[in-house]
Amino acid sequence: MTPSRYYAPHQQGRIRFGALAALLVFAGGLALAWWILSQPPRVERRPPPPTPPPVVDVITVEKRLQAPRLTGFGRVEAEKSTLLASRVAGQLERFGQGVLPGQVVEQDAPLVYIDQADLQLALEDAQAQLANAQALLVLEQAEQQRARSEYESFGRQLSAERRALVLREPQLRQAQAQLTQARVARDQAALNLERATLKAPWRAMIQDRLVGAGSLLNQGTEVLSLVGVEQFWVRASLPGDTLAWLKPGDVVTLTSQGWPEGASREGRLLSILPNLEENGLQAQLLIAVDDPLALENSAPALRLGDVMRITYHTTANEALIALPSAALRPGEQVWWVDDDERLRTTTVTLAYRGQEEALVRSGLEAGQRVVVAGLAQPRIGQQVRLRQRGDTPARDEGATQ
Prior knowledge:
By secondary structure, this protein is of the alpha+beta class.
């Protein structure tokens, strides 16, 4: 039998105190762990960094004498064109030398020869009729002279009507009328003979032969298609609000996609037509181009029906401020930057507004820095930064073209 241990009373108290302390430490650890697990993590709250001012693009405006650069499109048409027709009936004998499509003929050059045999016979007959009428008039004049001698020897006065009959005055007037008719018939026959040769009414280019040699022609049969080469017209259109910048006589520059790069022709504004174009209600202009086929120089030639791009050289009459159209916002509003680099706004009055450029008559002063890009939601007094060289270009999301 193993003997049992014996502890002294003071030893037993120490054991109980140690156990109680361990229990308290364990309970405190559990409580601390529970408190740590039950508390949410704490994040240190810091104020957000200040938003940097937006970067904007600006231009410093200047006021000077200037006018808009107007551009548009127009179509080439002939200033003079005709279908040359026969004025007499007959057989087409032959065409004149060089009368071919695409060839230029001078004014009064013979183009078409019509057989003249019948016309020559008609002229000879008319000449014979004229000679016969002249002879009848001479005979009638002799008869009248004889009747006057007899009347005077008769010694009696007759009434005016009876005296006119006695002196054969009606017969004389008839003979004179027949002579006039014969002379007119002779002149008409001579004119028909002359018209048997069709001539160019003006300097022209042959567009087409409408009939061939040997064809039988009636009066009015169309034989040749001609177009004048001295001048072409370009019928163009522009918005009606630009007409204040134009006047007849202004110089214009014309270009075409079919021409070599950099090639152009010069024309002049001939007139502003009174009617508006049906599609879009734009004003119609007529532009004249001399020597359009470049027969006298080495410039590119205009072709009928071609579409031309036209630049109008308008006259500057007042000092204006030029702005990109992108700088304008609805209501003709413009934003600018003051000396403290803060935004300000103003409403301007426009003298002209195009797709790329606008001209300001009032509302801005020379030297102001106008914002052209970089504003999304601007506010009056908002601090901004001006773009420096090398910065990425800004996009103006609020600008209106």
